[in-house]
Structure formats: structure tokens, C-alpha cells
């Protein structure tokens, strides 16, 4: 079997396997898998509304995935995307409600506020890692909790003891009438454009700039980079700051597009944690993140339709979705199996 | 050898999968026909209701479940069946799902769609504007739109009675309050509870703790552990799933020492079953929040063509929207008599329970 064939076959086989095992799970629990998958398909591509909502769901995953991937490329494990996203969400919403400005200033200002807040939340672990060699995983996990409860307290203060802010001014909103009309009032917003631009930005930084070269070098081997005369500490901090900025912008997508407000949360949103899987599925490359985010976003959103149209309980649906992602992620095993199978054939001949 | 086995296993799995998938489809087409064809045409009322849960889920032993029970009861009374044209629910996995779930139900032509919980305020406001024909009701929040009925409860009145009961029953003069998130709804519980305790005896110490979450039973358990260890003998929880941990802690103490004087006051639904451990029960009573009554009332009004769109309906002690659950003997007769006295005073307006903390 040629290499190209294997490359093509691996994802296809893994998706089919995932779907099959998912089908078995649905059957065992007494539900019709064909109906279930039809509902999943319709939940993703059924009509303009669902397509719009699917893309809306993909948008924050794209940015969260970029954030994780960017840190990974510099050898850092940024578990703090969740917290950086939450502070970004709050910052964007705050700028959105606190002042009213012309759209051309207000919207960029809100997005920049989110990016800066996220960057700040990434700067702290970066600094501690660079200066004191504190492991970034510990710091970022703790920063998640700090973010969650600090923003909750801030929301209370801003809303005079309430549990959510007012809706942001239209001048800070990412929503567009054109997209809403196109998709029958889905919450699809212009954030997707920003997210895709950011995919390009990440690619550009990593592949076309000295900074990107240094970041990747530090990721490969810190000591060698230092020996080659790079400032490792500066690069670690920069990587966390840029990663945090991506994560903050993911929060801005929620604040300025999906919700148009921020409400106090009883727990994490999960987008930041899913971002880890998105980045790893995409092998930490910008293009791969698009793939990972699309898969995650579509399945997550489409799954909502399975209880709706096929009557399958959400718990079963979540297992099925997890199984599909599990198989896609274990592409390496399938590649190994395919290679062995083809080697067998040659032997037999 | 191992490779071959692996391959065999793989193909077996594939084969089994396809075969199973095939029989599954047959089985379903038949049930689908019988299920869908008959309902609606028989004596069943030509009316349908559905609800969207918040992230707590439909089996939260709290207000989502209570709402769903109300909808089921309404469905039974009117000969409806679960599914299109009858009654149904959708569960939300995250805040972002509310819009989609509400929209899905409206597209399936349910006559009234309920958004359960204050978390859904934003989503309901948005959908109501986009779908002016839809009739939506929201629990625990107010949405100002002509096609939305808002339902509020005077939680403070129910919690007030719980506070009175706790103050009359405590032996250590220490009482605990475990809240979920610091949001207006839970603060109404807290305000009412504190007022109730203080009305009886303002020297009683109430330890107020917020866990910051509605779904973290382990946090509820550690908080309860601290309170009981510090000498509290009664804990009132207004914390949804987190409160289940309070019950766990109380039950463990009761199991370790059957003489232990530990009590829990439940919330939203009658949580008597939660407190059962062997022959003993740690549930003193529960502060009922009759979301089910509200749901049934509004459904009936809507069926009669009088959907209270644009109105805010408040349920309190006087209309049995809130109250205390049957204590099943945990509260002695003389205390019950005093409770009834206080209840009457609240209903008559002689006692006005504050809805915010002073």
C-alpha cells in the first residue's frame, strides 16, 4: 500500500470505526443508530440555521485550539486556556457594556481588551516558568480557578449584585444582520472570520518570522536554543502571552457574538479544555486546528439534535460522540494496523 | 499470530456492527409507526408543551425535575403522549445550548415552551423576539416580552418557615446554610432563612457558606462536614446537586452513630428520599418550590387560550407556590403548631419576609 493511500485511509477508517462502535452502543442501549446518526447529520448540516449554529460553535474551538497549539509548539503545556478564555470573555463584555463608541472603535477595542486580558492571564505563568522554573501546568490550572471566581465576583460588582451583565451595545457586537438573515436567525457571527485570520496569523508567526523560529527552537530543545544564543526566558513568556491572547479572543467570541453578555458561572465552560484535544487532534499545526475544531464543534453541536429528533438520551449521545473522537484520535493505531496488514499481504505473495 | 488475532477481532467487530445496525433499523421503523401515528388523533387534547432544562439536567432532584414532573402530570391529565404533539423535554449541556434547544422545540410546534431557570433569561429574551408567534414561559427570571410569561417564586417565604423550624428544633443553637451560587434566587432563600431563625431567637448562630457551584456534591459534603464538626445540628441547603453532598455527610454521620443529632432541610422538591439511611432519615423537612404547580397552571391557562404572555406571575405561601414538605414526624406536634401560626401570619401579611439581605 502506498504511503498516500495510508494517509487517506487512516482518517476514513478511524471515523467509520468510531461510528460503528457508537452504533453498537446505541443498539445495546435500545436505540436506533441509523435514526441517531441521521439526527446527528441533520443537527450539523440539516438547514441553514443548523449550519450557521455549527459554525458558531466551531469559532471559539478554533481560537482555543490555536492557543493550546501555539504554547505546545514552544514546549509549553497551557492548561490555562479555560481561565484565559473566561477573563477574555469578561473583559470583552465589560468593554461592550461600559462605554458606547462608534463601531469601528468599539468592536476592535472590545476584542483587544479580551486579548490583553487573556495575555495577562498567560503572562503570569509564563513569567513564573521563566524566572523560577515553576511548572506551567500547576500555575495555569490554579489560574483557571482564580479566573472563574474573580470574574464571578466582578460580574456581581458590575451588575449590582446580579448574576449577569446587561447586553453589550450593538456597536461592540460581532453579529451581523446579513449572517442572521442568511442562516434563519442563527447566532452565527463575524467572529469566524477573525478566527480564520488568526489561524493565518499563527501560521505566519511560526513559519515566517524569527520569533516563530526561536519559539519552535525553544520547544524542540531549550538548552540548544540557549547555547545558540536565544533568550529562552523571553521566548517562554512571549509564547504564553500570545497563547493567552488567542484564548482571550476565544472568550471575546462568546462575549461579543454568541451570548452578547457575561453571566456568573458555576463551573468551567469546557471550551478551553476541549481546546487541548482540538490542538492535539490537529497535531498542533494551524491547519490541523481547523480540522480539529470543525470535528469537535460539529459533533458537539450536532449531538444536540439526537435527543431532539431521535429521542436518544443525552448521556448516550455524549458517550457516542466521545467514542467517535476517541477513534479519530487513535489514528496512529489504525495506521499501524493498516501497515501490518499490507506487510502481511506482501509476505503472502 | 497476535497480528492475525487482532485483524480477526477487527473484522468481527465490523461485521457485528453492520449486522446489528441492520436489525436495529427494522425494529425501529415498526415502533416508530405505531408510536407516531395514533397519538393526537384519539381523545387527546390538541395541545402540546415542552421544556428546556438548564445544565442541571432533568433528574436534578430539584426544580428541573419538578418542572418535568409538572409537565408529565399535565400530559397525563390531558391524554398526551411523550413526543411531537404531546409533551417532551430537551436537556442542555452548556449555556450555549439554550437557544438551540428552545428553537428546536418551537420548530416542532409545541404550543408552550418552558425555559427552566434564571440561566435561560438571555436565550429566552432573544428567541422571543425572533419568534413572536411562539409562547414561551420562563421560571425564576423576568423577560419583558409580549409572548413570554415570567414565573417567580417567593422563595424567602418558604425559607422563612424553614428558618423558624430550624430555630425551634436546634439543640446546639448553631445552624448551617449551604448556598449554591451567590445569585438573587439563592439569596432570597438565605434572606428568608436568616429572618426565620432571627424571628425565633436572634442569638442562634447561622453559619452561611456558598460553594460557588450547583453540581459539586463533594464540595457540599466537605462544607457540611465542617459545619457539623463545628457544632451545627441542622443544615439548610439551597444548592441543587451540591446539596446532595450535604445529605451524604449527614447520612454517614447517622450511620456511624445512630444517636447523632444531624438534620438536613432539603430544597425545591420533597427530598425525604434523599435523607433515608437504613431505618433512619436525616431530612427534617424540605422547602418546596412548586415549579410543577406553576407549569401546570400556565399550561392550563394556555390551553384555554389565555396564555399570560407579558405578565409576571409570582407564587408565594398564600397560593401554595412555596411551602414546607411533610416532615413525616421529624418535627413534633407543638413545633408544627407554631409553624402553622407563622405561616398564617405570612399569608395574612402580618410578617413581611425580606427578599434581600440587609
UniProtKB/TrEMBL annotation, chain A:
* Record flagged with keyword Membrane: yes
Query: In which compartments does the protein localize?
Result: Cell membrane
Give the stretches traversing the membrane: 12-34, 79-99, 105-124, 188-206, 236-259, 271-296, 316-339
Q: What is its main location?
A: membrane
Q: Which domain of life is it from?
A: Bacteria
Q: Identify the keywords attached in UniProt to this record, alphabetized.
A: Cell membrane, Membrane, Sugar transport, Transmembrane, Transmembrane helix, Transport
What topology in the membrane does the UniProt record assign?
A: Multi-pass membrane protein
Keyword Cell membrane carried by entry:
yes
Q: Which InterPro entries match?
A: ABC_transp_permease
**Protein name, per record:** Simple sugar transport system permease protein
From what organism does this protein derive? Planomicrobium stackebrandtii
From TrEMBL, chain B:
Recorded hits in Gene3D superfamilies, A to Z, give:
3.40.50.2300
Q: Which CDD domains match?
A: PBP1_PrnA-like
Give its localization.
Cell membrane
Q: Which residues form the signal peptide?
A: 1-21
Report the residue ranges that make up the ABC transporter substrate-binding protein PnrA-like domain in this protein: 48-355
What's in the keyword line of the UniProt record? Answer: Cell membrane, Lipoprotein, Membrane, Signal
- A Pfam family this chain is assigned to: Bmp
- First-listed, main subcellular location of the protein, grouped into a coarse class: membrane
Alphabetical list of InterPro entries matching this protein: BMP_lipoprotein, Peripla_BP_I, PnrA-like
Q: How does the UniProt record describe the way this protein sits in the membrane?
A: Lipid-anchor
What domain of life is recorded for the organism?
Bacteria
Give the family, as the similarity comment puts it. Answer: Belongs to the BMP lipoprotein family.
Task: Please give the name of this protein.
Answer: Basic membrane protein A
Q: What is the lineage of its organism?
A: Bacteria, Bacillati, Bacillota, Bacilli, Bacillales
Amino acid at each position: 500500500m502506498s504511503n498516500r493511500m495510508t494517509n487517506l485511509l487512516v482518517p476514513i477508517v478511524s471515523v467509520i470505526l468510531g461510528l460503528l462502535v457508537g452504533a453498537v452502543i446505541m443498539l445495546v442501549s435500545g436505540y436506533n443508530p441509523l435514526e441517531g446518526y441521521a439526527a446527528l447529520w441533520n443537527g450539523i448540516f440539516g438547514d441553514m440555521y443548523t449550519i450557521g449554529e455549527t459554525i458558531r460553535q466551531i469559532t471559539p474551538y478554533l481560537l482555543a485550539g490555536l492557543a493550546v497549539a501555539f504554547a505546545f509548539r514552544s514546549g509549553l503545556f497551557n492548561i490555562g486556556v479555560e481561565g484565559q478564555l473566561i477573563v477574555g470573555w469578561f473583559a470583552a463584555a465589560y468593554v461592550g457594556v461600559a462605554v458606547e463608541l462608534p463601531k469601528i472603535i468599539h468592536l476592535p477595542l472590545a476584542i483587544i481588551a479580551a486579548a490583553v486580558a487573556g495575555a495577562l492571564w498567560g503572562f503570569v505563568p509564563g513569567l513564573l516558568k521563566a524566572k523560577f522554573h515553576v511548572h506551567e501546568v500547576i500555575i495555569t490550572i490554579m489560574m483557571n480557578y482564580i479566573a472563574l471566581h474573580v470574574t464571578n465576583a466582578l460580574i456581581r460588582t458590575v451588575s449590582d449584585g446580579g448574576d449577569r451583565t446587561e447586553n453589550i451595545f450593538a456597536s461592540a457586537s460581532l453579529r451581523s444582520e446579513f449572517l442572521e438573515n442568511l442562516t434563519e436567525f442563527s447566532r452565527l457571527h463575524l467572529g469566524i472570520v477573525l478566527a480564520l485570520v488568526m489561524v493565518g496569523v499563527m501560521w505566519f508567526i511560526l513559519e515566517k518570522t524569527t520569533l516563530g523560529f526561536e519559539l519552535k527552537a525553544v520547544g524542540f530543545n531549550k538548552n540548544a536554543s540557549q547555547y545558540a544564543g536565544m533568550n529562552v526566558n523571553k521566548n517562554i513568556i512571549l509564547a504564553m502571552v500570545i497563547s493567552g491572547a488567542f484564548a482571550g479572543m476565544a472568550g471575546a467570541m462568546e462575549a461579543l457574538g454568541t451570548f452578547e453578555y457575561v453571566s456568573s458561572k458555576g463551573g468551567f465552560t469546557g471550551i478551553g479544555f476541549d481546546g487541548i484535544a482540538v490542538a492535539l487532534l490537529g497535531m498542533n499545526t494551524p491547519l490541523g486546528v481547523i480540522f480539529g475544531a470543525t470535528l469537535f464543534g460539529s459533533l458537539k453541536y450536532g449531538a444536540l439534535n439526537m435527543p431532539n429528533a431521535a429521542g436518544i438520551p443525552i448521556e448516550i449521545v455524549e458517550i457516542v460522540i466521545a467514542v467517535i473522537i476517541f477513534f479519530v484520535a487513535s489514528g496512529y493505531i489504525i495506521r499501524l494496523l493498516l501497515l501490518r496488514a499490507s506487510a502481511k499481504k506482501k509476505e503472502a505473495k | 499470530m497476535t497480528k492475525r488475532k487482532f485483524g480477526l477481532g477487527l473484522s468481527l467487530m465490523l461485521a457485528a456492527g453492520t449486522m446489528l445496525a441492520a436489525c436495529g433499523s427494522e425494529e425501529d421503523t415498526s415502533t416508530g409507526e405505531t408510536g407516531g401515528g395514533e397519538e393526537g388523533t384519539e381523545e387527546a387534547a390538541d395541545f402540546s408543551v415542552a421544556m428546556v432544562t438548564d445544565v442541571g439536567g432533568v433528574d436534578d432532584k430539584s426544580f428541573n425535575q419538578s418542572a418535568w414532573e409538572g409537565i408529565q402530570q399535565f400530559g397525563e391529565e390531558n391524554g398526551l403522549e411523550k413526543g411531537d404533539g404531546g409533551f417532551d423535554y430537551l436537556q442542555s449541556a452548556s449555556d450555549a445550548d439554550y437557544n438551540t434547544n428552545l428553537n428546536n422545540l418551537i420548530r416542532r410546534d409545541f404550543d408552550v415552551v418552558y425555559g427552566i431557570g434564571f440561566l435561560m433569561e438571555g436565550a429566552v429574551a432573544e428567541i422571543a423576539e425572533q419568534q413572536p408567534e411562539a409562547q414561551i414561559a420562563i421560571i425564576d427570571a423576568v423577560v419583558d416580552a409580549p409572548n413570554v410569561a415570567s414565573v417567580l417564586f417567593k422563595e424567602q417565604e418558604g425559607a422563612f418557615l424553614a428558618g423558624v423550624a430550624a430555630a425551634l428544633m436546634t439543640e446546639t443553637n448553631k445552624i448551617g446554610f449551604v448556598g449554591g451560587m451567590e445569585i438573587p434566587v439563592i439569596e432570597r432563600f438565605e434572606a428568608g432563612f436568616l429572618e426565620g431563625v432571627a424571628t425565633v431567637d436572634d442569638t442562634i448562630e447561622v453559619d452561611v457558606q456558598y460553594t460557588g457551584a450547583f453540581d459539586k456534591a463533594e464540595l457540599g459534603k466537605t462544607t457540611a462536614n465542617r459545619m457539623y464538626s463545628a457544632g451545627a445540628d441542622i443544615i439548610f441547603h439551597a444548592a441543587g446537586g451540591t446539596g446532595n453532598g450535604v445529605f451524604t455527610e449527614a447520612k454517614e454521620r447517622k450511620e456511624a452513630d445512630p444517636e447523632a443529632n444531624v438534620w438536613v432541610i432539603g430544597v425545591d422538591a420533597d427530598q425525604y428520599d434523599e435523607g433515608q439511611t437504613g431505618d433512619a432519615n436525616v431530612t427534617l423537612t424540605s422547602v418546596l418550590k412548586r415549579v410543577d404547580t406553576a407549569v401546570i397552571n400556565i399550561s392550563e391557562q394556555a390551553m384555554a387560550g389565555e396564555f399570560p404572555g407579558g405578565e409576571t406571575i409570582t407564587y408565594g405561601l398564600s397560593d401554595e407556590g412555596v411551602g414546607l414538605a411533610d416532615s413525616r414526624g421529624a418535627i413534633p406536634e407543638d413545633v408544627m403548631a407554631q409553624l402553622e401560626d407563622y405561616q398564617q401570619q405570612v399569608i395574612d401579611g402580618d410578617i413581611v419576609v425580606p427578599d434581600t439581605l440587609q
